[in-house]
User: Fold this.
Amino acid sequence: FKRQKVIDIGQEFERRELDVIHANGMTVADIRTVTVAKGYDVVYVDYLQIVNPGREVKRGDRFGGVSLVSMDLHNMAVSLGVLVVALSQLSRPDRAARGKAPDLYSLRESGQIEQDADAVFLLYKTDEEDKASPRNLRIAKNKKGFAGGYIELSFDGATQTFREIERSCNISAHYAEVGKAVKQRTRAKGAAQELEELSGP
Assistant:
């Protein structure tokens, strides 16, 4: 992500009309009804694990319930042509996995989320023990583009805002400049050799 692009997106986002609906206990069918009535283009669900499945699931079967919600949200997005952004909890790492970055298997209570989503972004602390540690926003899945990279962010709890950490940009810029310098030296060396060969003995 380039800095100017992020700024432009933020300005565009501020101009959009947003409704906040307290949807406690709502099913996907309820969300769909409101979406159609209001003519929404984008629906944010905060968060997927507390949406009511709306159908009978075996008592205590959280996996089955979350899977139903994930599939229903996916079907809603496709049939209505709207963008659905669903927040999901991540499973807490076990003792052996502590210190490792989460992956798609860390999506809590259902592998169905991974299957249904076109894109998955994972937001997590770089140090679980440090409340002030930076956060990483990792692109874990992207059907239509690049995946695998991440953005390093700082988090301000008082304002609940994230900001890109400057040093990430500086590091990227540094390596970009190093790469350019290497390419220039390689081209200059190649040109010198070519000139030497043309000159002959």
Observations:
- The chain is about 40% helix and 15% strand.
- Strands lie at 42-45, 83-86, 119-125, 135-142, 150-156, 161-164.
- The two ends are 52 Å apart (CA to CA).
